[in-house]
Amino acid sequence: MSIATQLWQANQDLAMACLQHPFVQGIGNGSLAKDQFAYYVGQDAFFLEAFARAYSVAAAKVPDWQGFNIFHDLAGGVLQELKLHQSYAKQWQVDLQTVEPGAATRRYTDFLLATAWSQEVGVTTVAMLPCMRLYAFLGQQLAQNGIPDHLYQDWIRTYSSDEFEPLAQQLAELADRYVQISPLVRSTYRYAMQCELDFFQAAFVYPNVNG
Question: Which domains does the chain have, with CATH numbers?
Answer without folding.
Answer: 3-204 (1.20.910.10)
